[in-house]
Amino acid sequence: MNFPGIKEDCETFLGLFQATDSVRYEEFLTIWKQMKFNTIFHGGMRNLESNRFSRDLFSVVSVFFLPPYTFQIRVGAMYLLYGLYNTQLCQPKQKIRIALKDWADIEQFHQELVTAQHLDAVYIYRQLRRMRAFYFTGMPITLNFKSQKSIIPEDGNEAFLDVKDKISDLITTETLEEIMNIQEHYQKTKCHFSADKSQPDRSLSLIREDFTDNLQSLVEEFQLWKQEKKAPRTKTDDEQEGTSQESEASERARHLAQIKSKTYNAVTQAVKSRRHRQVQMVSAPTEVETYLPLSKYQKEKLKKAERKAELDAIKKAVTPLPKKKPVNMAAIHEEDSSSSSEGEDCIRTVFTPAVAAIWWGITFLDQGCNLRGCRGCDRTRAQEV
Question: Is the pTM above the cut of 0.70?
């Protein structure tokens, strides 16, 4: 919609027409003159802009001419289409787009007008047909390569919607009267077949005698609840609801405090083998704890802390442990020795530095050092020679 304010003006007009609680054309004409709605086209627009404005205006009003709006709103929308079509300044006149899928609803609406003998509304409808004001199309709006595949319906005024009440349609005043007459005739028939003609036999009482009274009271309660739901809320209602919620919260807190006190006051007797670990009773302070509701900031803070703890736990679970660097162990090659015992020749052994030092020390003590330049070895060789 390229012209803002059209929908608001049309809803205001139809709201005033709905307040009259009538479908007469005289009431519509009075509102038309009061709002000076015929001047809506006097905006100093050029021909092209005036054509687009008229098309947008008809598309907005034609929505209220179709279900699911109430009968009165649909009649008012038809009157409004008739007035706008005749007061537009376009030459040739722009027509009202009606999709083929909606034409069956319009024909049914015309039959309802004829059945209810709303002759002024029937005359306006036939005038629109005679002037060929309707332009029958496949879709309610123009589609091109830039438009979306699915048409998103616009949100209408909820006060104009026709909310179907299945309970009221099912149980009407005539239906209740008929049920009461059947119940009365049923009671008389039971009295006729029983021994005591004044009251029916107990064996014949298959349904409750106050069935119709209960049904009527339930319908009245439903109608009262429906009226209260439609009525606007006041500050007193909000205050009463707030006090009731506070009382419920205080009762719940008191109930929890009683449960805790009962739980901690009862100390069970331990078994003989655990008497030395017997729980001692500690008297709690007599002050009653008050549970105040958390504020919005405190709730958000708790949520952030919980989320942070969850993320830390996930990180700890996912993060791998640091890998230990492999320690390169020294490989010691044993030299050939005539005094080596039990086949120690050509043996490769891997020792840690500490074990290797100890092993070499023992070897030096047992076999002596064969390294050149060692003074101890030279003395030993001299003695042997």
Answer: no
Which residue pairs, CB below 8 angstroms and at least 24 apart, start in 253-261? 253/289, 253/290, 253/291, 254/288, 256/291, 257/288, 257/289
Domain residues for 364? 348-385
Confidence (pLDDT) at 337:
45
Residue 265 lies in a domain: no
Q: What does the alpha-carbon distance between residue 325 and residue 342 come to, in Å, rounded to a whole number? A: 37
Query: d(Cα 133, Cα 135) in Å, to the nearest integer?
Result: 7
Phi, psi of 197 (to 5 degrees): -70, -15
Backbone φ and ψ of 333, nearest 5° = -95, 125
Question: What is the SS3 assignment for 150-211?
Answer: CCCCCCCCHHHECCCCHHHHHCCHHHHHHHHHHHHHHHHHHHHHCCCCCCCCHHHCCCCCCH
- Mean pLDDT per 10-residue section of the chain, whose length is 385 residues: 83 94 95 94 88 93 92 96 95 94 95 95 96 92 68 63 70 84 86 78 77 84 79 61 70 78 59 55 48 72 87 74 54 48 45 56 52 55 54
180 and 104 in a common domain: no
Q: Which backbone phi and psi does 64 adopt, to 5 degrees? A: -75, -10
Residues 99 and 20 placed together within one structural domain of the fold: yes
Q: Measuring CA to CA, which residue among 140, 165, 13 is closest to residue 66?
A: 140
Residue 89: how many CB atoms within 10 A of its CB?
14
pLDDT confidence of residue 98: 94
Residue positions counted in the chain = 385
Domain count for the chain: 3
Residue 263 lies in a domain: no
Mark whether 34 and 87 lie in a shared domain: yes
On whether both 129 and 20 belong to a single domain, the answer is yes
- Helix then strand then coil, in percent of the chain rounded to 5, is 60, 5, 35
Among residues 144, 163, 182, the one where a domain terminates is 163
Does residue 217 share a domain with residue 122? no
Per DSSP, the three-state class of 251 is helix
**Residues 226 and 157 occupy one common structural domain:** no
Report the DSSP pairing between strands 348-351 and 330-333: antiparallel
